[in-house]
Specification:
3 domains, 11-stranded mixed sheet, 20% strand, 11 helices, alpha+beta
């Protein structure tokens, strides 16, 4: 059984504002004008031991590259990343056009404003289930709502915690929409991307490469969902992502990785004078095809990333023969077998980490347990091999399934 998530998530709003609250100083109000955390819920302030406030602050202040008047224009994006043991942040960022409505203080607005609403805790379901949910409402308030000019010494109200279950309305990503998206010439790209991700998780975090996807943010959302649907939700929640990053041409390492020393101190840049370990901010990261700061990004054999070009439907990934596994071919169908494997079989298995052996488990499952299995056609050597693969991490905690396999095998 998987750990039960807390029923509530903490909430943070980050934007250009006045005043703002200091996350690391018990939410103290700072009466200055500029980008900062407008507010948060009170409960979050007591979690500095379980939530990495430094990382949270760093990611909130990192803008997604949307800019009014640029070739890419204004857009929204999502980011999902770990902040501690079983603690993740998922944020929704909206770039704002220049506000023409005067502030009560008489000061003019500045271009380049964006707003991030961030939820912190342990979400339920698949992370992509949070795309387009009703919880993302901070951007609906005007820019002036975040300037408390009258009275000038006013304090932002603390926010409320929110439910950890997404409530979706309007346009949502469904199994059918993912299946349709993948069927439009993207099947081989999804197979290659999934193969890449599983094999990267075989490596230590320090050695992992990032999967970059060159596509518009709305499509990257569907790419993320296409990969997540190939895993049970509790494993999908272990894959951090960003649906849009920028400055990959000039600051590739700084945009994709951070570093820690042996004491756990975090640095956003590599310091070769001390021993450091590299960590990807995201394992899946989109970048806009029209972003001039990413125009020269190319994957080389020595690159710390691979690329799927969502516009031209090409990839730099060079998979080996293991991509011929039925897991990868069945994944892109998004039908009964892969869904049963993810929803009913994998949650009962002892394997709790992402790895390339998931493909082997699926092959064993389809031989022994899928809806078309035929016990009468089992061959001794193939059956023994399937049993070994299926139980290589220990037996399932589903006693009925174990009893069935034992009875049929005998």
């Amino acid at each position: 059984m998987q750990n039960q998530a807390s029923e509530k998530l903490d909430q943070v709003i980050y934007t250009r504002c006045k005043p703002h609250r200091d996350l690391k100083n018990n939410g103290q109000v700072v009466h200055s004008d500029g980008f900062g955390i407008f507010s948060m819920n009170r409960e979050l302030l007591n979690k500095s031991q379980s939530v990495n406030f430094d990382m949270l602050q760093t990611r909130l202040s990192r803008q997604n590259g949307a800019k009014e008047g640029s070739a890419a224009g204004l857009f929204h994006s999502y980011e999902y990343y770990p902040l501690g043991e079983m603690v993740y942040a998922i944020s929704y960022e909206v770039a704002r056009p220049l506000c023409r409505e005067p502030r009560k203080s008489g000061q003019s607005h500045r271009p380049g404003t964006y707003i991030k609403q961030c939820l912190v805790g342990e979400i339920t379901g698949y992370p992509f289930n949070w795309f387009g949910t009703t919880v993302w409402d901070a951007w609906k308030k005007s820019e002036n709502s975040y300037y408390l000019d009258e009275p000038s010494d006013g304090d932002p109200e603390f926010l409320a915690q929110v439910d950890n279950r997404p409530v979706a309305v309007g346009k949502i990503i469904s199994l059918e929409s993912v299946r349709a998206f993948v069927s439009q010439g993207r099947r081989d790209m999804v197979k290659a991307g999934m193969w890449f991700l599983l094999h990267e998780y075989d490596k230590s975090e320090n050695d992992r490469k990032v999967l970059l996807i060159r596509d518009i943010p709305e499509n990257v959302e569907l790419w993320v969902a296409a990969f997540e649907y190939g895993l049970p939700d509790y494993l999908a929640r272990k894959i951090p992502f960003s649906t849009n990053v920028s400055r990959l041409s000039t600051q590739t390492d700084q945009s994709l990785f951070y570093y820690t020393d042996i004491k756990g101190n975090v640095s956003t840049v590599l310091n070769r004078s001390v021993q450091q370990f590299r960590h990807p901010y995201a394992m899946i990261a989109g970048f806009h095809p029209k972003d001039n700061y990413c125009s020269t990004v190319r994957a080389m054999p020595t690159s710390n990333f691979a690329i799927i070009d969502g516009e031209n439907l090409t990839t730099s990934i060079q998979a080996d023969d293991t991509i011929r596994s039925s897991y990868y071919s069945d994944l892109i169908r998004y039908d009964g077998d892969i869904r049963d494997f993810c929803e009913y079989v994998m949650p009962k298995m002892p394997l709790k980490e992402i790895c390339s052996k998931i493909a082997e488990l699926y092959e064993a499952y389809t031989y022994l347990l899928d809806e078309n299995h035929k016990v009468d056609s089992w061959q001794y050597e193939e059956t023994l091999s399937a049993f070994c693969k299926f139980n290589q991490y220990g037996i399932s905690d589903d006693m009925k399934m174990n009893e069935y396999l034992f009875t049929e095998a005998c």
